Each structure stands twice: as structure tokens, then as C-alpha cells.
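Q&A log
Question type: sequence-to-structure
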Amino acid sequence: SLSFAPSSAEIFPDHRTLAIVFSASAGHVKFFSPSLDLPALHSTCSFGIFARTSVPRGIVATMKSAGGSTVSSAGHSGSGAWEFVGASGPFQAKEDGGPRPIFYVYGDVEISAPFFSFGSVPPAPGFEPLSSTGGIMTGTLTMGMTTVSPPEGPGWFWELPHEGNLFEMGPLDGTSVTVARINGNSGSRKFPNGTVITILLPEVGVTFREGGYLLLKGNADFRPTLPHSSITLVNVGSASGYGASWKEVSRND
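Response status: OK
Response body:
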């Protein structure tokens, strides 16, 4: 049986939950979205649900990985307390069906509304998208952050995933690297005009090459000499709305 439970401030103010009670002969209940709009820009997602149950693995989350196999979460521990049950990671291609997030319920459980977001930042109760006409924020703005391996020569084209706005360059292993283009190779997934990114540089040894794809301060290369420097860039794109050209906004070196 299904019934709405009173609002529970333990999860989020005024957030009502759904109580699922099984009969003796019941098997399991499956919750999923029959259709999910998948933007071509994303390849990673995070989703989950707050649940309370005394049944170990009374609720489990599954999704399709990038390789097409089904991956499963650890499930609820059965502690009788509210726990977040979900999964996160790269998902299979859109043409193959995408992530297919599913919750399997095997015992009496209380659940919140499910949450889903693209990228690696876990969703949370109360999160809502900002409309294209703008929005008002009264809480914390959390941006996706990921570590990306340095580019390789001879082209020095650096490919960043569309999973956030903060990118930390991975270990240099004692070498020096150059960034000549960001998502500017043939077949790269371009960022939309106006996208602002910040690149964090834990180590010294990185040169950003000034040119038509990187419009830098003073029309000169950026070669920080101190560890934990950073540079913020905005995509100036092209008339099509997407492009490989970036203009410097600020730097910290």
C-alpha cells in the first residue's frame, strides 16, 4: 500500500514522504522515469533518494554505466534512520537509452521525492533548476568540480568534460605542459558562449599559450610561477552559440 506521511523536517522543511507497506506475498516495487530528457552535453549523472527503513537493502538504486552494464548502490543499511540511497557516474550513450535510473524497493520503507542532476555533484532536497529567464538564490551555489589529466603534445589540446565549472589539472609528474586550446580539437564538445570556468593549477610548469583560441591579458602567455595558481576564462564562442575561443577574466598567480 502507498500513503503520504506527515511533513518531515528531518529531511527538508515541509517535505512530505511516501510510505510503502508490503503485504506478505508482495515481491518488490520499481520506481523509474519512463522518459528522461538527455542533453547531448552531459555524460555523467548523480541521482538518489532519502529513505528510512529497518530492512537491510530495503531500497537499492541502479543505473546503466558508460559500458552498458547495470551498476547498483550499496542500498539502505536497515538502520531505521534516514539515509541517502543513490548512484553516480558516467552513463551509457543517449542512443543506447542513457542512465536509466531505477529504485528497487524490497521492504516497508518511507521515501522522499527522488533527486537527479547531471554532473558529479550529489543532488539534495529543495534543489530546483533556475529558469532561462533568471532566478533568485537565497542559499549556497555549489558548482561541479573535477580533476582532469594534463594535455599532451604535440597539439596541446585540452579536453574538459561538461561536468562543472571548476577544473583542477592533474599531476604533471615532473614535466612541463602547454595549453594551446580548450575543447578546440576537431570533434570536441564545445562549451556554450558565456560559459565561465576556473582552472586550478596545483603545480608549477603549465603555460597557457596566447592566440586566437586563448585571448589572454596583455596578449601574452600565462606561465604562473607559484603553485596553487588559477585562471578564470569565459567562452566567447562563435556565431553558432558554441566555440573553442576563450577570453581571460582573471588570474591568481
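Response note: Residues 127 and 141 are 10 Å apart (CA to CA).
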